[in-house]
Amino acid sequence: MKGSFITLEGIEGAGKSTCMAEVLTVLKTAGRDVLETREPGGTRLGEELRQLLLGHKHTGMHEDTELLLMFAARAEHLQQRILPALHAGRWVLCDRFTDASYAYQGGGRGMDMKRIQQLENWVQGDVRPDLTLLMDLPVELGLERAGKRSSPDRFESEALAFFQRVRKAYLEIARREPQRVQVIDASQSLENVQAQVREVIQRFLEQQA
Ligand code: Z5A
Known about the structure:
Elements: E1 5-10, H1 16-29, E2 34-38, H2 44-54, H3 63-87, E3 91-95, H4 98-108, H5 113-124, E4 131-136, H6 139-146, H7 160-176, E5 181-185, H8 190-208
Parallel strand pairs: 1-3, 1-4, 2-3, 4-5
Helix pairs in contact: 1-8, 2-3, 3-5, 4-5, 4-7
Bound molecules: ligand Z5A.
């Protein structure tokens, strides 16, 4: 039996990490064996690449390099952890995946979406998430929530307009793939957001039964 692949996406401060816990609880209560992971990262090599990508050591990194490093980390993650877990019948819950490359590198940096698609096809073959929760909220609110954290990483240091392009790109993906991408109104209170998340996951579980 093959497990299901669920991803969480959203702009800065959207509450993905907070809601991962909620998704995990619902899945575990339903008896699913879940691999919880994240991108960039998820493997030892991927976590090292994450440090290079998010840290300030390579502030002027070229956008091609950034995109290729994202996909290098993803190739390692897929081959070493995600695919073995899915083939073993486990569920995979991942904090960000390829939609983030379309939103941040495509939308935010303005890179050619076709290039990203070529890498997606090469690295992933036909592997795509079965369900994606897009935590959506106004950029100003997300940045305000995230701003309460200590030191900003390389992406968090970007300007407001960058995150507005990222949000727009995410919403465009949701518009194109309404079956896979479920939009959560993340501007609501935490209780309300968690309730929306529970409902989407319960519905998905029922569809899989
Ligand atoms: N990136 C990329 O460019 N290309 C790619 O292909 C991939 C990634 C895969 C790392 O992501 C960066 O990599 C990311 C995109 C880029 N950069 N950015 N920006 P990350 O996921 O590790 O980093 P992040 O976006 O900063 O996520 P985060 O730290 O996990 O934050 P979050 O999940 O969006 O939010 P949170 O930590 O759950 O919540 C933020 C705060 O708001 C926190 O204090 C909560 O208690 C609070 N919160 C949450 N929900 C609520 C509600 N509903 N009401 C009030 N307060 C709330």
